[in-house]
Design goal:
- The chain is of the alpha+beta class and 201 residues long.
- The chain contains five helices and six strands, in the order αααααββββββ.
- Helix content is 45%, strand content 22%.
- Helix 1 packs across helix 2 and helix 1 packs across helix 3 (73-110).
- The chain is elongated and about 85 Å long.
- The model has no long low-confidence stretch (mean pLDDT 93).
């Protein structure tokens, strides 16, 4: 078959070329610039950018064939495989960074004074210890914490499990004049839904 690549809209696209393109789908506008397919810049148009990756995935190979001169079908496929590999590596790096960031945030929350204070109140509550059973293990906190110098605010929750029961601790704490104070702390048991006030003397 004659090599019609680079001849624009009139170019005949070989069947083995006209297939889903993962590089175009994942890297969209970056892939578009690299393959002279500037319609990919529609990714910067609001709302259009929600469907454009799928359009590029489906039509990208045909557009790239028509917009560039390729030595052969094999040359085209070889270059597009490199784009796919680059996209997978880029997304792998992004996912890894998000995972690292997530666990860094969790680790920061777990080492915070507010979290430690809530765990301390759980472990010193005779009612909570009696219901949960010893030893008690606590999970990673979820929620938010803001600290600005001597002031701060925390609203978080974490799981708590003992030898008899398990539940979730919800707490709010405020940092004033450099010291954390517990505003409210509640243990809610998983099975019964019973709520125990950990802030009660």
């Amino acid at each position: 078959m004659e090599n019609t690549s680079g001849q624009g809209p009139s170019a005949t696209v070989p069947a083995e070329v006209d297939r889903w393109n993962w590089g175009a789908f994942l890297l969209n506008w970056i892939w578009g610039i690299g393959n002279n397919t500037f319609i990919a810049l529609l990714m910067f148009v609001p709302f259009v950018n929600m469907v454009m990756p799928f359009v590029l995935g489906a039509k990208g190979s045909a557009w790239a064939w028509r917009n560039n001169r390729w030595e052969s079908v094999e040359h085209f496929k070889r270059v597009q495989r490199k784009w796919t590999l680059a996209a997978l590596i880029a997304f792998g790096v992004i996912i890894a960074l998000f995972v690292i960031l997530f666990f860094s945030i969790i680790a920061g929350m777990k080492s915070s004074e507010a979290y430690k204070l809530a765990v301390q109140q759980l472990e010193t509550s005779q009612e909570a210890v009696s219901v949960l059973g010893e030893p008690i293990s606590t999970g990673a906190p979820m929620g938010s914490i803001e600290v600005s110098g001597p002031s701060g605010y925390a609203s978080m929750s974490f799981s708590a499990e003992g030898s008899k029961e398990s539940g979730t601790v919800y707490f709010e704490a405020v940092k004033e004049m450099g010291r954390w104070e517990m505003n409210a702390a509640i243990l809610e048991l998983d099975d019964s839904g019973l709520r125990i006030d950990l802030n009660r003397p």
